[in-house]
Amino acid sequence: MGGAQIFLYYGTHDFRKTYMSDKVQFELEFAVNSSPTVLFSFLSTPSGLSEWFCDDVNSRGELFTFFWEGSEESAKMLSKKNDQFVKFRWLSAEEEGEKTYFEFRIVVDDLTGDVSLIITDFAEEDEVEESKLLWNSQISDLFRVIGA
Questions:
Q1: Per-domain residue ranges of the chain
Q2: Which of 26, 36, 70, 86 could potentially form a cystine with 80 if both were Cys, beta carbons 3.0 to 4.6 Å apart?
Q3: Residue of 49, 31, 43 lying closest to 109 (CA atoms)
């Protein structure tokens, strides 16, 4: 995991194979009946995230700790721009040297004013569909909370 290298030697040949994380990037897009400002508060603040993403959130600066029924996971907020996007990286991924992240991006169509939420995430190739189903469920919870 995370870039461990295995060197195989046969005679004078050096067969190098690097085992990197097989995580692949995927995106999901959702039409949202909400203003970017309201939506952004649910994507970027502990109080907003605890309404739909997890049971509770603590934050200290860029560090967010998410709690779910007896478990917890911490993430670092990598970047954000008000009413446009917020990007996090799980600390467990960072410790393993992975460059994966999850991002919430708000896009407003210039012509129609329609608001979309684009989620970018990473998963093992054989877990992408399961991850998409989880995000769909989470976003359904978000829409219920914001009345979209």
A1: 22-146
A2: 86
A3: 31
